[in-house]
Amino acid sequence: MERSLSAFLAQNVKKVENTFYPASNRIVDDKGKPVDWEICCITATENSRIRRSCFNTVPVAGKRGQYTQEFDANLYLAKICVRTTVFPNLNDKELQDSYGVMSAEELITTMLTPGEFEDYSTKVMETNGFTDEKNLVKEAKN
C-alpha cells in the first residue's frame, strides 16, 4: 500500500459537523418545544489556550513565599461551553442583562440548572472528540 500525505491536507480532512442539543427543557419555543443549542468543535490549540487560562497561582499552606498552580475545572468547563456554543450567543448584552450577569461564563451557569449544565458540558466535550467515561468503561468490558 502506497503512503501519501494528501489525506492529511486540510482541504481533504472531514470537518466536524456542528451538533444541536436541547440544553434545557425549560427554554422552549412558542409551541412549547425545547430550543436546540448549537455546538461547534474547536482545535486542540484553542482547547490548550483555554485550559492554560484556567490555572490559578495559590500559596502553599504552611510554606511562606511558596506558590503552586491549581486547575479550576469548573471555570474550564464554563469557558469551553461558552466558546463552543454557536447559538444562543452567550456574549449578547441583552441576554446577559436579562439574567443580571456580566460575562458569558456567568450566564451559562446561571441559565442552566446544575444538572442541565453537567449534561450540556458532556455534550460539548463529546462534540469536541472527548469520549465520556461511561463509553470508555463499556469499550473496556467488550
Task: Write a brief caption for the model.
The protein has 142 residues and is α+β, with helices and mostly antiparallel strands.
Characterise the protein shown here.
This protein has 142 residues and is of the alpha+beta class. The protein is built from six helices and five strands. It has helices at 44-52, 73-84, 93-99, 104-111, 114-127, 133-141; strands at 19-21, 37-39, 55-59, 67-71, 85-87. Strands 1-2-5 form a three-stranded antiparallel beta sheet. A two-stranded antiparallel sheet has the order 3-4. Strand 3 and strand 4 form a beta hairpin. Helix 2 (73-84) packs across helix 4 (104-111) and helix 2 packs across helix 5. The longest helix has 14 residues, at 114-127. The two termini are 31 Å apart. 15% of the residues are buried. Mean pLDDT is 90; it is low at 136-142.
